[in-house]
Design goal:
217 residues, mainly beta, Porin
Length: 217
């Protein structure tokens, strides 16, 4: 079950494999940097968006239902690229790219088949707050054609689905300030602007404000 808590101990039919290569080398002279390349392939009890769409269009299912077409020999795979780079002693930047094959159902965390992110943070030394940090990021997420067609026809994933879909990339701008309160206590004030939430041009935009607490022991 997508996002379920039960563990299937039959590794011959349900398992996940990951491989990652990390290079500790920066692109800015005398500054630290890292490059990570990840590949993964998951075997599990997953349905196929294209099969679910075809079954609905053929009149076999009253609504597109990907869980009605799950089978244990399904394979979902993808890649990820992460780059982190110190620009100065106080400023860091990063970029990330992720992609999966987008045919089999989203199984955990969230429904994303492609993501691109860039961001940076800066330590507050200049204004006398050397432990504080300010940051900003831009994220653009997408799903595969078969995935959004499934949602457009009225299908539901484990997170998305409101009966229709006017597809567009989900774009997010986020900014935050992380303030050191006392010893190991930190608070972060965060704002996110989400355009086309859930990949739907007919929804949003949405503004999200949050306050987070963090304690180091």
């Amino acid at each position: 079950m997508a996002n379920g808590i039960n563990l299937d101990w039959a590794f011959s039919r349900a398992r996940g494999q990951n491989a990652e290569v990390e290079v500790d080398r920066g692109f800015v002279k005398h500054e630290l940097g890292k490059v990570r390349l990840l590949g993964y392939w998951n075997n599990g009890h997953m349905g196929n968006y294209q099969v679910a769409n075809q079954a609905y269009l053929a009149g076999e299912d009253p609504v597109p239902t990907i869980t009605a077409h799950e089978h244990f020999d399904a394979l979902k795979y993808g890649v990820g690229l992460n780059i982190e780079q110190a620009i100065t002693s106080a400023t860091r930047a990063y970029g990330r790219f992720g992609w999966n094959e987008g045919q089999h159902e989203s199984y955990c965390y969230t429904e994303i088949d492609q993501t691109f992110q860039v961001g940076a943070d800066h330590i507050g030394t200049r204004w006398g707050r050397p432990v504080d940090k300010i940051g900003a990021a831009f994220v653009s997420n997408a799903i595969s054609k078969d995935h959004w067609e499934y949602l457009k026809l009225g299908g539901h994933g484990f997170l998305l689905g409101d009966g229709t879909l006017n597809y567009g990339r989900e774009n997010i701008v986020e900014t935050y300030y992380n303030i050191h309160v006392w010893r190991g206590l930190f608070n972060a004030f965060d704002y996110q602007f989400v355009d086309n939430p859930g990949y739907n041009r007919d929804r949003g935009p949405v503004s999200v404000f949050s306050v987070r607490g963090h304690i180091d022991f």
